[in-house]
Design goal:
single chain, 68 residues, mainly alpha, 4 helices, globular
Length: 68
């Protein structure tokens, strides 16, 4: 698996976790879904920025949900 595919897969999994945590209409959830679909560097950067702006508890919860 390439690094790009792994990154897009991880973004998609984070988006699914955030649907549960923040809701489907949350801007970060939408940005992560878009980044996972397009894979463009601009969308990925935007999604990461929004993810880092989440409350630390929400970030930790989302990351815990995607751990294998």
């Amino acid at each position: 698996m390439t690094d790009e595919a792994l990154g897009r897969e991880t973004l998609a999994r984070l988006a699914k976790a955030l649907v549960f945590i923040c809701g489907a209409d949350h801007p970060t959830t939408a940005a992560l879904k878009t980044a996972a679909e397009t894979g463009s560097e601009r969308d990925i950067k935007h999604a990461r920025t929004l993810f880092m702006r989440l409350k630390s508890g929400d970030r930790r919860a989302a990351l815990a949900m995607i751990e294998d």
